[in-house]
Amino acid sequence: MKLVNPLTAIFHPPPTPGVLAVFGHLDATVDAIGRLRAAGHTDFTVYSPIPRHEIEDALDQPVSPVRMFTLVGGIAGCAIGAWLTLYMSYDWPIVLGGKPIGSIPPYVVIMFEMTILFGALSTILCAVRRSGAAVAVFAALAALAALAGLACNPDDVVHQIGWFSTMRHQRSIKPYAHPIPPVPGTVPVTGAEPIMSLQTADRLVNPRTRTSESINRGRFVYETYCLVCHGPAGQGDGPISSAAGGPFIGVRSLVNDTIARRTDGYIYAVIVSGQVMGRGLMPIYGDKVRGTDRWDLVNYVRTLQAEAKAARAGGRR
Q1: Residue 37 half-sphere exposure, CB side, CA atoms within 13 Å?
Q2: Which element (helix H / strand E) includes 85?
Q3: DSSP label at 242?
Q4: Long-range contacts, 245-251 (Cβ 8 Å, 24+)
Q5: Cα–Cα distance measured from residue 23 to residue 27, given in angstroms and rounded to the nearest whole number
Q6: Is 241 helix (H, G, I), strand (E, B) or coil?
Q7: Which residues lie closer than 8 Å to 277 by C-beta, 6 or more apart?
Q8: Among 297, 75, 276, which residue's Cα sits nearest to residue 206?
Q9: How many CA atoms lie within 13 A of 30 on its CB side?
Q10: Hey, is 25 helix, strand or coil?
């Protein structure tokens, strides 16, 4: 029994009945087209070695709407690419070297890619709409396959192959992650940090003078790490604290008399490791706030305490 090759119908279709004619002159070709159209024939194709507007005028074929779909899709993709990049930049601004937040030149790549993507998708949709049910079914199956591919986790599929890992799995330090611990027995060139405890914290001496430079730096560090819990004035009313309707309870005020009577060393130790100092719910910030930034932060907290004390004294008057 002879098996039927399913690809035969695609690559070797059956002959199509019709008439084939070859003309050596343009006038004869245009005249033949006119006679065929006058006789009611519309389904025919004309091949020419060079484009001739006379043949196009004789055929009088309607302009395909596919090109308009492609144009509209391309313009929409370019606009969406510009909006997407600019919106993300201004929604999460990152200032680097004084560069503008929204910079058009680097976004041209995204805009170009979105133009090609939306233009191609619009072309396919228009072609499917003008073709038939078979092509529509094929396009739907292709779309389902694409969605299934996008739904897969890259770490579970592509990136398991070493050549395509693209450095997703590496020993880099992620934001807010603990760095790799030092080798036991080694001491940094800047000297080992003092061991924090309730007994030794009060012995630490603040080496940073409370200058405007130190306070401004401490304010920057405070707004980066502390404001979200303790609030802009240090009263424990940050956006995520329960005092402001947030989910976290027990956020202490930094400007009450109890904290104001504490030493600079105590506040320094709480910054390094609040859990060691008895603040079990406070995250560890010693791996994020380093060096003199810790003492600058202490100086800024002292400034907040002085402002709160002055405000209370003015209120009593």
Answers
A1: 14
A2: helix 66-91
A3: G
A4: 248/281, 250/281
A5: 9
A6: strand
A7: 196, 198, 201, 266, 269, 270
A8: 297
A9: 11
A10: coil
Give tens-digit pLDDT for 177-194: 666 666 787 777 766 676
Cβ-based neighbours of 282, under 8 Å, separated by 6 or more? 270, 274, 275
Q: 3-state class of 57 per DSSP? A: helix
Q: Shortest CA distance to 128 belongs to which of 72, 74, 78, 65?
A: 65
Residue type, 60: D
Amino acid identity of residue 58, one-letter, is: A
293: closest CA among 194, 196, 208, 204? 208
H, E, C per residue of 142-169: HHHHHHHHHHCCHHHCHHHCHHHCCCCC
Bridge partners (DSSP) listed for residue 241: 248
125-153 pLDDT, tens digit per residue, is: 887 776 655 555 566 667 777 766 666 66
Spatial distance between the Cα atoms of 142 and 158, rounded to a whole number of angstroms: 20
- Helix, strand and coil content of the chain, in percent to the nearest 5, comes to 55, 0, 45
H/E element holding 170? none
Domain boundaries along the sequence of the chain:
8-59, 66-162, 201-316
Among candidate residues 228, 243, 237, 234, the one with its CA nearest the CA of residue 267: 234
Q: Residue 246 is which amino acid? A: G
Q: How far apart are CA 229 and CA 248, in angstroms?
A: 8
Give the mean pLDDT of the chain: 80
Q: What CATH fold (topology level) applies to the domain 201-316?
A: Cytochrome Bc1 Complex; Chain D, domain 2 (1.10.760)
233-250 confidence digits (pLDDT tens)? 999 898 888 888 888 888
- Please give the Cα distance from 237 to 246 (Å, whole number): 9
Q: pLDDT digit string (tens) for 244-291? A: 888 888 888 899 888 888 899 888 988 888 777 777 678 888 888 888
Q: Backbone phi, then psi, for 102, in 5-degree steps? A: -105, 105
> In terms of residues, how long is the chain?
317
Considering the entire predicted model, what is its pTM?
Answer: 0.44
Torsion of CA 67, 72, 73, 77, to 10 degrees: 140
